Amino acid sequence: MIELKNISKTFRSSKKKTIALNQVSLKINQGKIFGIIGKSGAGKSTLIRCVNLLERPDEGEVWVDNVNLLDLSEAKLTLERRKIGMIFQHFNLLSSRTVEDNIALPLELIGTSKREIKSRVDELLHLVGIGDKAKEYPANLSGGQKQRVAIARALASNPTLLLCDEATSALDPATTKSILNLLKEINQKLNLTILLITHEMEVINRICDEVGVIDDGILVEHGSVEDVFTNP
Ligand code: ADP
Ligand code: ADP
């Protein structure tokens, strides 16, 4: 289970102070897909980055499987972070590496044996449906194929949580649909919890179990998609 408690984050520069997150709390049960929707500048990206501590909240608690990440030493945090995968709008693949070597990267970093990497990468390539692209470079792939590689890379260390930062915003409608279907399939197959941010209602409607609406750093509503978006 994932639980955020009273997360706040303020950005300060010499000229101004921006309250990006103001006491945000939410809970996500294992295996659920939770979508955060809000306008540009609402705080979505800061929120999702606070979950894996790419951004450090000023206050609050980030509980992942009964551990508050903010309590951990750097060494322990590195271990806990393996439980959290992330994908991005612009895929963030390494252009100098082939598809299989991009997917292998997180496993290389934790010292997995070559043999084990090979079998794990094969398994992941098939899971995301690009078994024939192993030796390609990212430049030769479509947007949807690149996102499939990124999903495989994010799943390499067998995370319990997948963070998706506007994962379909750079894709055309048909490709968006196929990537959302893939995320749902993986969610069900692996009982993987997914936290995503989006500015598109379609993403919420198509795959999310629960939704949070963020406005000006405040989580103004959250609940099941039906409860939040069906008017009485
Ligand atoms: P969203 O993802 O919903 O577009 P963000 O989380 O990126 O929103 O931004 C929320 C607010 O925090 C915005 O006003 C943004 O300008 C500000 N902000 C985000 N990151 C930084 C930063 N590193 N430095 C200063 N201000 C920031
Ligand atoms: P960049 O600024 O290009 O993202 P980084 O050093 O942050 O550079 O990342 C190096 C590589 O690792 C990039 O391909 C990036 O997409 C990937 N990466 C960064 N953060 C994460 C994360 N939390 N989960 C998975 N991959 C990540």
From TrEMBL:
KW rRNA processing (keyword) present: no
Gene Ontology BP, a term: amino acid transport
Name assigned to this protein: Cell division ATP-binding protein FtsE
Domain named ABC transporter: residues: 2-232
Family according to the record: Belongs to the ABC transporter superfamily.
Coiled coil: none
Encoding gene, per UniProt annotation: metN
Key words, A-Z: Amino-acid transport, ATP-binding, Cell membrane, Membrane, Nucleotide-binding, Translocase, Transport
GO molecular function (one): ATP binding
Keyword set includes Zinc: no
Function: Part of the ABC transporter FtsEX involved in cellular division. Important for assembly or stability of the septal ring.
Example of a GO cellular component annotation carried by this entry: plasma membrane
Organism domain of life: Bacteria
